[in-house]
Design brief:
The complex is a heterodimer.
Chain A: E1 5-10, H1 14-17, H2 22-30, E2 35-41, H3 47-60, E3 64-69, H4 72-85, E4 93-97, H5 99-103, H6 109-127, E5 144-147, H7 151-160, E6 167-170, E7 185-186, E8 191-192, H8 193-206, E9 210-213, E10 216-224, E11 227-234, E12 239-244, E13 246-249, E14 253-255, E15 272-274, H9 275-282, E16 302-309, H10 311-314, H11 321-335, E17 340-345, H12 355-364, E18 367-371, E19 373-380, E20 383-389, E21 395-400, E22 402-407, E23 409-411, H13 415-422, E24 449-451, H14 461-478, E25 492-494, H15 504-508, E26 514-517, E27 522-525, H16 535-539, E28 545-547, H17 552-563
Parallel strand pairs in A: 1-2, 1-3, 3-4, 5-6, 5-13, 6-9, 13-24, 15-22, 16-17, 16-22, 17-18
Antiparallel strand pairs in A: 7-8, 10-11, 11-12, 14-23, 19-20, 20-21, 25-28, 26-27
Chain B: E1 10-13, H1 17-28, E2 33-36, E3 51-52, E4 57-58, H2 59-72, E5 76-79, E6 82-90, E7 93-100, E8 123-125, E9 134-136, E10 138-139, E11 151-152, H3 158-161, H4 169-173, E12 186-192, E13 194-197, E14 201-203, E15 220-222, H5 223-230, E16 250-257, H6 259-262, H7 269-283, E17 288-293, H8 303-311, E18 316-319, E19 321-328, E20 331-337, E21 343-348, E22 350-355, E23 357-359, H9 363-370, E24 397-399, H10 409-426
Parallel strand pairs in B: 1-2, 1-13, 2-5, 13-24, 15-22, 16-17, 16-22, 17-18
Antiparallel strand pairs in B: 3-4, 6-7, 7-12, 8-9, 10-11, 14-23, 19-20, 20-21
The chains are: A alpha/beta, B alpha/beta.
Chain lengths: 564, 428
C-alpha cells in the first residue's frame, strides 16, 4: 500500500506560532517522499482540533500521522486516541515536540524554526518504519499463594480469600501464628498477643477459601504474573502443584545468632538470655510456665537489658529492639515489682506517634537507662558483670543477676534459597528487595510477586500488617476475577534466527522477563512481564533482541534526520 | 450486608503521595475515584523536595509520572480547590458534600503557557516557597506543578479584594480564553462506598520554641525552607544562599525541634537531616556542617548504609541538649549542653531546624466532618495501632500517610495500598 504520511503542525495559540515560522516548517517537509499532506492548525488538542485531525486521517486515507506540537507527556495519548477513533493504528503515529524543546526555549526565531524542521523531518523518517502494534489480552488466575503464616501472611490471606479467589497458605512449621504467637504481650499497649492473634488464626482455619498447608515448603515456581505454577512439598514427601496468579512472600524473621560474638558471654556466662529466650520464659506456655527465674531457681533482683546486639555486624537498626526492650522491662516490673531493671543503649529509637509515651510509662515504673558503648558481659561477683564505656568515656562495671540481649532481626533462614526459587532479589542486608524503596514497598521486580512484613525489612507488627494489607491491595487491584490482563504493547522481542544464546539480555533484564529456552538454545521474552525498557535491545551483541517501538531502523532514521 | 445498592466508588481526600497512590490503585481495580484536593495542584509535600532519601533520587522525577497518570486516568475525577464539608451514611453508602472553589481558569482551555502571570499587577510571597519567593495573584505554586493550570487567588486578586473590580489583565493576556470570571463556587454531592483520608501533615512552627531564634534572627531556616533553597525549581534556582546573598560557610542542623512539645519522635527527621548534609556538601564542598542531636533514630534496612555514606562526606555530630540560637557579632551562636552537663557552643552563619511532623492545622475540623477521632497528638485515631492501623472505628473510613501519624514515604505508600486492600476486600 502506498505510504501517505500526514504532517500537522500545531500553532498552540501564539506559543508555537510566534516563535517558530510554521510556514517554513511546512515548506521544508511537504515535498518529502511519502508526505501526502502538511498543514497547520491553531490548537490541535482542542475538541475542534481533534475532530479536524480525525477527519483529515479519514479524508486523505493517511497511513501514518506526525503531529508537531507539545511534549508527548502532555498530548501523546490524546493524539493516539484520535488515531484509534479514525481507524489508524495508534502506533503509526509520532509526536514531534516543537514547543517545550523549540518554541519555549529558543529566543531566536530562525534557530527555533531550524530545530523544529529537523524534529519534524526526524519524526517523518521515523514514523514510516513504525510497526502497527496490537493490544493483547491474557487469561489470569485470581488465586494466590501466600508463603509464611505469621501475622503478615495471615492478614494477607484473610483479605484475599473470597468466593472468587482461593488462597493457598503455605507454612513450613506445624502451627501458624509465627513469632507473635510466642509473645505474651505486645507493645505499646501491653495487650495480650493471643487475644489479638487467636481470633485471626481461627478465621484462617475456618475460612473455606483458604487452604492451609503446614509443614510445607515451596520447591519451584514457574510461569508469570496471572499464571504461576508452584510446586509445594509437604515434609516427608507428598508434592503438589498449584496454579496461582500471584504470590505473597511473608517469611518473616529470625533472631541474630549472638553466639558468634563472644563479648556478650552468651552460652558461657550463666543467666545471659536473648530477647527471644526471655519471651519464652515469660510466656505462660513456656518452659517455666511464665515464671522469670535464674538458673538456680531464684527470681532475679536485677536485670540488665543490652540494646543493639548485632547491629554493627548486621549494618542496620532493627527498628523494634528499643521498643521490645521497654516491653521486656514492663514484663519484669509487673512480675517482680522490686526488680531493678537497667537498659544499656546507644541511641533510643522510638519512631512514630505512640512510642515516646510508652517509653515514659516504662521509665516511670522505675527502669533506668544508661547510655553505653563497648558493652561486654563477663562472670561477675555473684552474678553477671556488664562492662561498658560510659558517656564520659570512662570504663565502668555493674553487676546484675540476669542479662537480656536485645538481638537484631535478620531474614528467616532459607531466604536465600527462596529468593532463587522465586527469582527475586535480596539486598546486601539479606532481606528481599522491593521494586522501589518508596513507591513500590511491597512489590518486587517480578510482577505478581509481593513481599510483606519482616521478609522485606525489619519492622514491627503494625508495619508488617500494613504491608500485608498493601500486598493484598496490589493483588486485588490487578488480578480481578473474570478480568483479563492487558500487557504492555511496546515490548521487546528476540529473533530466533539471530539469537546466539549468550544470555546477555537475561543479565540486563530488570523485570525477569527473559528466560532461556534450553531446547532451542535461545532467549525468549515473556510479553506479560516485559515493560519495554529496552535494556536487552541495547545490550544484545547479535542484534536479535529488539524493542518493537524503538527498532534500530526507527532510531537510526530519526537520528540521521535530526543530525543531517 | 446487602450487596445490591452499595456503591463501590471511593472518595480519596488529599492528593499528596498517599492519596495519589490510593487513587491510582483503586482506578486500576476498576473503581471510580473522586480525589479531593484543597490546593490548586497535586503532589503534596513531596514535590517540595529536590531529592528523597535513601537513594537520593530526584523527587519530582519520582512523582511526576504518578501525577501525570492521575490526571490522565479516566476513572479518577480530580477536584482541586475542594474540601469535604459533610459526610453522611456509612460503608457502601456514604453521601459526601464537597465544596469546590472557583479556579476562574478553565482546566480544559488553559494550556499552561503562563502568559497571564506577567500582566497581573499583584505580587505577593509564595507560600509554596515558604515565603522565600514571590508569585502573582494568578499563579501556579512552582514550575512543574500539576495540573499545569494557574488558579486565581481570591484573597489577593484585585477583582475579589474590591481594589479594582475592573481589572482583567490576565484575561486580556490569555489568547485561549481560559480565564472565566463567571465560574462560581459550587457544592457537589458524591455517593461513595468508602473514604480514604490522606490529608498529610504540617511542620511544627519553630516560633513556638523561641530558643531557636526562628523568625527573630536571620539565617535560621526550617526544613521546608531549606528544601526550597536547594530546589532547582525554587526561588534561588537551587543555590544555597543566606539572606545577604552569600553561600553559608558553616551550618548547624538542629534535630528534634518540637519533639518535646509534641510528645513523640517524628520518625523521619534524622534521615532528612542526613540528606541535608548531603545537599550541603554536594553543593558547597568546603562548608562546615554540624548536626546537633540527642538520639540518632535511623530504623530500617537501608538507613544505616545511607547514614554511613553521608557521614563519610564529613561534618560533625554533636550529642547536645538545651540548644539555643542567638545573634552574636553578626553571626549565629549556637549554645548547647553536652550530655555530661558541660556547656558548648558553635559559631555558624546558617542554622537549619528539623521540626516535628504534626497534624494539619485543620485536622480537628476534618475529624468532625468525617466523625472520626483524633489521638492525643491530634493525628486521626486508628481502629487498632498494631492490628488495624489504616482503619478507623467508623466502618468504611480509612486513614493513611501522615494523617495517621508521622512516617516516611515508604510507610505512607504502603498504608495507601493497605487501605485499598481493605476497601476492595470489604466491597468486592
Amino acid at each position: 500500500m502506498e505510504e501517505k504520511i500526514g504532517v500537522y503542525v500545531c500553532e498552540c495559540g501564539p506559543n508555537i506560532a510566534e516563535k517558530v515560522d510554521i510556514e517554513r516548517v511546512l515548506a521544508a517537509v511537504s515535498s518529502i517522499e511519502g508526505v501526502a499532506v502538511a498543514e497547520r492548525y491553531k490548537l490541535l488538542c482542542s475538541e475542534e482540533g481533534k475532530k479536524f485531525l480525525k477527519e483529515n486521517i479519514e479524508k486523505h486515507g493517511l497511513t501514518h500521522l506526525v503531529v508537531a506540537a507539545c511534549s508527548p507527556k502532555q498530548h501523546e495519548l490524546t493524539f493516539m486516541n484520535v488515531c484509534e477513533e479514525a481507524g489508524l493504528n495508534p502506533y503509526l503515529f509520532q509526536l514531534a515536540n516543537i514547543r517545550e524543546q523549540c518554541a519555549w526555549i529558543i529566543e531566536d526565531k530562525d534557530e527555533a524554526t531550524e530545530k523544529a524542521i529537523r524534529y519534524v523531518r526526524a519524526a517523518i523518517s521515523r514514523v514510516r518504519y513504525h510497526i502497527p502494534l496490537e493490544k493483547k489480552e491474557i487469561e489470569a488466575n485470581p488465586d494466590v499463594l501466600v508463603i509464611g503464616a505469621g501475622v503478615a501472611g495471615i492478614e494477607a490471606s484473610l483479605l484475599l480469600a473470597s468466593r472468587a479467589r482461593k488462597v493457598y497458605l503455605v507454612e513450613r512449621e506445624s502451627s501458624i501464628g509465627g513469632k507473635v504467637k510466642g509473645f505474651a504481650q505486645l507493645f505499646p499497649r501491653m495487650e495480650s498477643a493471643s487475644a489479638l492473634l487467636e481470633p485471626k488464626i481461627k478465621q484462617v482455619v475456618e475460612n473455606k477459601n483458604i487452604e492451609l498447608m503446614t509443614e510445607s515448603e515451596v520447591e519451584q515456581l514457574l510461569g508469570f504474573f496471572g499464571n504461576f505454577v508452584v510446586t509445594v512439598r509437604k515434609k516427608g514427601g507428598e508434592e503438589r502443584e498449584l496454579n496461582v496468579g500471584a504470590v505473597v512472600v511473608a517469611t518473616g524473621l529470625q533472631e541474630f545468632d549472638v553466639s558468634g560474638l563472644p563479648q556478650y558471654g552468651y552460652g558461657k556466662v550463666d543467666n545471659v538470655y536473648t530477647a527471644g529466650e526471655f519471651e519464652r520464659m515469660n510466656s505462660p506456655d513456656g518452659p517455666t510456665q511464665g515464671k522469670v527465674l535464674l538458673k538456680d531457681g531464684r527470681a532475679p533482683r536485677s536485670v540488665a537489658i543490652i540494646h543493639c546486639v548485632g547491629r554493627q555486624e548486621k549494618g542496620y537498626c532493627s527498628r523494634v529492639c528499643c521498643l521490645y526492650s521497654l516491653k521486656l522491662a514492663q514484663y519484669l516490673k509487673s512480675k517482680i515489682p522490686e526488680v531493678q531493671v537497667c537498659q544499656f543503649y546507644s541511641d533510643l529509637c522510638l519512631p512514630g506517634k505512640p512510642y515516646q509515651r510508652f517509653y515514659e510509662e516504662t521509665k516511670g515504673k522505675g527502669v533506668d537507662f544508661i547510655r553505653a558503648e563497648k558493652v561486654e558481659i563477663s562472670e561477675g561477683e555473684g552474678g553477671v558483670a556488664v562492662n561498658y564505656s560510659s558517656e564520659s568515656g570512662r570504663l565502668e562495671v555493674r553487676n546484675f543477676d540476669m542479662v537480656i540481649l536485645a538481638t537484631a532481626m535478620e531474614p528467616a533462614h532459607g531466604s536465600a534459597k527462596l529468593a532463587e526459587i522465586l527469582n527475586i532479589g535480596r539486598g546486601v542486608e539479606g532481606f528481599f528487595i522491593e521494586e522501589h524503596e518508596k513507591l513500590g514497598p511491597v512489590s518486587t521486580s517480578l510482577e505478581g510477586i509481593y513481599i510483606a512484613g519482616c521478609a522485606q525489612g525489619p519492622k514491627g507488627i503494625s508495619e508488617s500488617i500494613v504491608q500485608a494489607e498493601a500486598a493484598a491491595g496490589k493483588i486485588l487491584a490487578s488480578l480481578v476475577p473474570g478480568r483479563k490482563l492487558e500487557p504492555e504493547v511496546k515490548v521487546s522481542e528476540i529473533s530466533e534466527a539471530f539469537c546466539i544464546g549468550c544470555k546477555t539480555c537475561i543479565s540486563v533484564c530488570a523485570y525477569n522477563a527473559i528466560t532461556f529456552d534450553e531446547l532451542r538454545r535461545i532467549s525468549v521474552v515473556n510479553e506479560v512481564l516485559c515493560r519495554g525498557c529496552g535494556n536487552c535491545a541495547a545490550a544484545c551483541p547479535s542484534g536479535a533482541a529488539r524493542h518493537r517501538h524503538f527498532t534500530f531502523r526507527q532510531i537510526y532514521h530519526e537520528l540521521m534526520e535530526t543530525l543531517r | 450486608m446487602e450487596a445490591t445498592n452499595q456503591s463501590k466508588d471511593v472518595l480519596v481526600v488529599g492528593a499528596g503521595i498517599a492519596g495519589i497512590e490510593a487513587s491510582l490503585l483503586l482506578a486500576q481495580a476498576g473503581r471510580k475515584v473522586y480525589l479531593v484536593e484543597k490546593s490548586p495542584s497535586i503532589g503534596g509535600n513531596v514535590i517540595k523536595f529536590e531529592e528523597v532519601f535513601t537513594n537520593l533520587e530526584c523527587s519530582t522525577c519520582m512523582i511526576a509520572p504518578k501525577q501525570q497518570e492521575t490526571l490522565q486516568a479516566e476513572r479518577i475525577e480530580l477536584l482541586t480547590l475542594s474540601q469535604v464539608v459533610r459526610v453522611e451514611g456509612g460503608l457502601g453508602d456514604f453521601k459526601v458534600t464537597v465544596k469546590r472553589n472557583a479556579r476562574w481558569v478553565d482546566l480544559e482551555a488553559c494550556i499552561g503557557c503562563g502568559a497571564c502571570f506577567d500582566p497581573c499587577p499583584v505580587s505577593l510571597k509564595n507560600e509554596f516557597e515558604e515565603g522565600l519567593g514571590e508569585r502573582k495573584a494568578i499563579y501556579i505554586p512552582c514550575a512543574g506543578a500539576l495540573p499545569n493550570v494557574p488558579a486565581i487567588d481570591r484573597e489577593h486578586c484585585l477583582r475579589f479584594t474590591g481594589e479594582d473590580k475592573t481589572c482583567q489583565a490576565c484575561q486580556e493576556a490569555c489568547v485561549f480564553e481560559a480565564i472565566d470570571f463567571d465560574q462560581q463556587d459550587e457544592e457537589l454531592e458524591i455517593k461513595v462506598g468508602a473514604i480514604v483520608v490522606a490529608t498529610g501533615y504540617d511542620l511544627f512552627d519553630p516560633r513556638r520554641s523561641p530558643q531557636y531564634g526562628y523568625g527573630k534572627v536571620g539565617g535560621v531556616y526550617t526544613a521546608f525552607e531549606f528544601e526550597r533553597l536547594f530546589a532547582s525549581n525554587g526561588p534561588t534556582g537551587g543555590e544555597i544562599l543566606l539572606p545577604n546573598g552569600n553561600p553559608p560557610k558553616s551550618v548547624a542542623i538542629i534535630h528534634c525541634v518540637g519533639r518535646k512539645e509534641r510528645g513523640y519522635c517524628s520518625a523521619v527527621c534524622c534521615m532528612y537531616a542526613l540528606k541535608f548534609v548531603h545537599y550541603l556538601k554536594s553543593k558547597l564542598p568546603t562548608v562546615e556542617v554540624a548536626q546537633l542531636y540527642t538520639d540518632f533514630c535511623i530504623p530500617g534496612k537501608s538507613a544505616q548504609r545511607f547514614s554511613e555514606k553521608v557521614k563519610g562526606m564529613g561534618g560533625d555530630l554533636i550529642r547536645a541538649e538545651v540548644v539555643e540560637v542567638a545573634k552574636e557579632n553578626g553571626n549565629l551562636r549556637v549554645k548547647y549542653n553536652l550530655p555530661s552537663g558541660k556547656a558548648g557552643s558553635l559559631e555558624v552563619d546558617m542554622v537549619i531546624l528539623a521540626p516535628a511532623i504534626e497534624p494539619r492545622a485543620d485536622a480537628a475540623d476534618l475529624a468532625k466532618v468525617f466523625n472520626i477521632a483524633q489521638d492525643d497528638a491530634g493525628f486521626f485515631a486508628e481502629e487498632h495501632p498494631e492490628f488495624s492501623s489504616v482503619a478507623t472505628p467508623r466502618e468504611g473510613i480509612f486513614i493513611v500517610g501522615c494523617a495517621q501519624g508521622p512516617k516516611n514515604i515508604q510507610g505512607s505508600v504502603a498504608q495507601s495500598e493497605a487501605a485499598v486492600g481493605r476497601i476492595i476486600s470489604l466491597l468486592p
